[in-house]
Design a protein that fits this description.
Distance between the termini: 19 Å
Order of helices and strands: HHHHHHHHHHHHHHHH
Strand content: under 5%
Helix content: over 70%
Length: 396
């Protein structure tokens, strides 16, 4: 392994920029995420209409995710990152100022498009310019830094809403989040150099090749791990408020969310001292998610959910490194988005299944059943073949 001075002489600036940008995007996302449902309900949008709008948005996420990755590989990761942040930020400003249901729906559609366009574009801007002998260490460092920054800044976003929520209304908070994203689009365009490892294929050809790749037996563990982590994240996101704050105290929700995101940040940083492969780290993280959810549904709910969030941070960091080690430079964003699409489908299934079980057998039992499903997927990941690291990538 190359010495640390060589490693950091080649990539420190890009690592700092990637981590800072990832954290700032998460901060804006949590500003928006903490209040947007309240904003929409305050506009006399019925729960059924709101659900329909979110269903349209979720469906578009699944449809647009994979093509967005192919577009980035074909036309440039920096370009798609900047465009995506502009569209995303503009959508939040439009949502904050919307005066009709049609404009609100348009804003939610733009929101989905913007998130899809920028999805997965930061990693290639760092990885594709790094020599092959530096890749493994760089990728694990990049995933740890960006995921930790994501969760720490998410906690900061939650804390900001907690502090300013009594001073600013929800419209102002969403508007501010949009302005932050527009600013980040300019910073990303200036701070990053464009990736030179572009795909020579058309978008359609890249998609066909990527879906063929993701369906191959050697990539099956990545697919299973992605489905399991999406399932775990969905259960945590949907159930933590009714379990930990059944009275619906908004300020208490903010305090709990700060604790949960801090636990996830700690889990994201942990892979550094763990001398095991990213695949095994992912399995450990999935076990912590399942165990924490099961414990949270039986007794000591806060402790259980803290363990689950810790496991989620570990899982997303480790699986992110595992995926990037398996991608090729010319298809890096396409392959990322293809697996992300599978994760979105898993999340959609998990939401549906959770709602049905919740009505049928109660929330606590529903959580236990889904925790058991995470364990099953984790075991399937263990016994599936491990994808090899691609050694044919072009060093930039």
């Amino acid at each position: 392994m190359a010495d640390s001075s060589t490693f950091y002489s080649r990539s420190p600036k890009a690592l700092y920029i990637a981590a800072g940008l990832s954290g700032a995007v998460a901060f804006a996302d949590f500003l928006f995420g903490a209040v947007y449902v309240t904003l929409l309900l305050g506009r006399a949008i019925s729960p059924s209409l709101l659900g329909t709008m979110f269903a349209v948005s979720t469906g578009l996420s699944i449809v647009l995710e994979a093509p967005s990755g192919a577009l980035a590989d074909r036309y440039g990761h920096r370009r798609l990152l900047s465009i995506g942040l502009v569209v995303w930020g503009s959508s939040l400003i439009l949502l904050a100022t919307a005066t009709s249901h049609i404009v609100t729906l348009a804003a939610l559609i733009l929101w989905t498009c913007g998130m899809a366009l920028q999805s997965g574009t930061i990693a290639p801007l760092v990885i594709n310019r790094t020599a092959q002998d530096q890749r493994e260490r760089l990728i694990q460092t990049l995933m740890r830094w960006t995921q930790t920054a994501h969760w720490l800044c998410s906690a900061l976003g939650a804390a900001t809403v907690y502090v300013v929520g009594t001073v600013l209304d929800t419209k102002s908070i969403v508007f501010a989040a949009g302005c932050v994203l527009l600013t980040l689009a300019c910073i990303a365009h200036i701070a990053f150099r464009e990736s030179t490892a572009k795909s020579p294929q058309t978008v359609w050809s890249s998609l066909k090749e990527s879906f063929g790749w993701v369906l191959s037996p050697i990539v099956r563990p990545l697919v299973l791990a992605s489905a399991a982590s999406s399932l775990g994240m969905t259960v945590i996101v949907v159930t933590w408020q009714p379990v930990l704050s059944p009275q619906g105290d908004v300020r208490l929700n903010g305090l709990i969310l700060i604790g949960l995101t801090a636990a996830a940040a700690l889990g994201s940083w942990l892979p550094k001292p763990l001398a095991i492969s990213p695949k095994n780290q992912t399995i450990v993280g999935l076990g912590l998610i399942a165990g924490g959810l099961a414990a949270g549904s039986v007794t000591v709910p806060l402790v259980g959910y803290l363990f689950a969030e810790f496991g989620l941070g570990l899982t997303l960091t480790a699986s992110g490194a595992w995926q990037q080690l398996s991608f090729t430079d010319s298809q890096r964003n396409t392959q990322y988005s293809t697996i992300a699409s599978i994760g979105l489908v898993a999340a959609l299934v998990a939401n549906t299944l959770l709602g049905w079980l919740w009505d049928s057998i109660g929330l606590a039992n529903a959580i236990r059943w889904l925790a058991a499903m995470i364990v099953v997927l984790a075991l399937a990941t263990i016994y599936a073949p491990t994808p090899r690291t691609d050694t044919t990538q072009v060093s930039q």
